[in-house]
Structure formats: C-alpha cells, structure tokens
C-alpha cells in the first residue's frame, strides 16, 4: 500500500531505483498520464515508489521549471541523473518520451484525416476541465510542503511570484529573472 501524501512528504527515499526501474517508471507515467503528466509523476515518485520525499520532489521540480524545456522531461533527466548519472538520465528521458512520441505521431495522422468532425471537437472540449483539475490538484500537493511550518521568507517569494504571474499577468520569464536572485540569496542566508 503506498504511503500517504503526508508521510511521503517527510520520508527518506527507500532505496535508489535501478536504471531499468527509472525507465519503466517514466514509461508507465507516459502511457497513463494523458493531459497532465506531473500529477502522475509526483504520485509515482513520492507516494508509490518513495524515490524522493515530497520536499525533495518540490525542490527538484523547482530546478526543472527554471531550466528550458518541458518540466516533466527535465524532471525525468534530473531524477535519472541523480541516481545513476548519464545512464539514468537517458533512462528517464527514454521512458518519458518514446511511447508518447509514437502515440502522438499516430494520433496526428488520425486528426489530419478526421479533425473536421464535430464529435471530435466535443471530445477535446470535454477533456479540458479534467486536465485543469489535475493541474489544480498538483499545485496543492506541491505547495503543501512549501507552506508547512513557520514563516520564512521563501513563502513570501512564492506568494509574490504567484501574484505577479497569475494576478498581474507579468510574463513568467521576467518574474523568474527578477525574483530568483533574491530568493536564492534569502535561502542561502537562512541555511548558513
């Protein structure tokens, strides 16, 4: 039985996964996680497998969001590299990319042929609320470890970043460039 989200947030990794386990884990995620890979990735990595604690996952995801490219691809490479260096990075990347690429190419061919059918537009419109719900659930799960405990200045940076992007509609790259140096300096100051 997988550990609860609360226990997973503070638990240490059970044991390092093998290269094959990393590949198969990300392959599984890529096959079942249509429209929202991140919630499934967190569930597998933190709650089911215990490869990372909730806090470690959030920290790794923060790094991956700062890097260019899709967050989940960055996360698969970073997690693989953490445990097995370059072979692990390739295993994570291959697991997350191989099957979705094949499926998308096949679906692209089907969409090219039948994309003008009204029923297909209805199906796609019906999937949007489910995808939004997955994103909201993931935000809550990722945010909980950040906002637990007493006040520290990192929480203030999280609130400012949210307000700047979500409420004031500032471009995300500008917010990251503006806040990252201050946030890193504050974290460094707090940990020294």
Q: State the order of secondary-structure elements, H for helix, E for strand.
A: HHHHHHHH
User: How many beta-strand runs?
Assistant: 0
Oligomer: single chain
Q: Structural class per helix/strand content?
A: mainly alpha
| First-residue to last-residue Cα separation | 39 Å
Main sheet record: none
Rg, rounded, reads 18 Å
User: How many helix segments?
Assistant: 8
Residue share in helices? over 70%
Low-confidence stretches: 1-5
Mean pLDDT: 85
| Beta-strand percentage range | under 5%
Morphology: globular
Outline the fold blueprint.
Elements: H1 5-10, H2 19-32, H3 37-48, H4 54-66, H5 71-114, H6 118-147, H7 153-167, H8 172-191
Helix pairs in contact: 2-3, 2-5, 4-5, 4-6, 7-8
Q: What distinguishing features does this structure have?
A:
disordered N terminus, 192 residues, mainly alpha
Describe the structure.
With 192 residues, the protein is an all-alpha fold. The chain has helices at residues 5-10, 19-32, 37-48, 54-66, 71-114, 118-147, 153-167, 172-191. Helix 2 (19-32) crosses helix 5 (71-114) and helix 4 (54-66) packs across helix 5. 80% of the residues lie in helices and 0% in strands.
């Amino acid at each position: 039985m997988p550990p609860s989200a609360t226990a997973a947030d503070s638990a240490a990794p059970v044991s390092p996964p093998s290269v094959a386990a990393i590949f198969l884990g990300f392959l599984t995620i890529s096959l079942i996680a249509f429209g929202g890979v991140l919630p499934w990735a967190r569930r597998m990595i933190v709650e089911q497998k215990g490869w990372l604690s909730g806090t470690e996952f959030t920290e790794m995801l923060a790094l991956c969001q700062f890097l260019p490219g899709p967050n989940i691809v960055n996360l698969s490479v970073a997690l693989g590299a953490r445990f097995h260096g370059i072979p692990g990075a390739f295993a994570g990347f291959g697991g997350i990319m191989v099957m979705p690429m094949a499926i998308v190419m096949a679906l692209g061919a089907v969409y090219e042929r039948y994309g003008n059918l009204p029923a297909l537009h209805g199906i796609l419109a019906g999937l949007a609320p489910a995808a939004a719900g997955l994103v909201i659930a993931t935000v809550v799960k990722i945010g909980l470890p950040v906002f637990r405990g007493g006040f520290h200045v990192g929480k203030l940076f999280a609130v400012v970043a949210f307000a700047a992007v979500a409420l004031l509609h500032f471009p995300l790259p500008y917010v990251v460039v503006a806040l990252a140096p201050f946030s890193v300096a504050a974290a460094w100051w707090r940990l020294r």
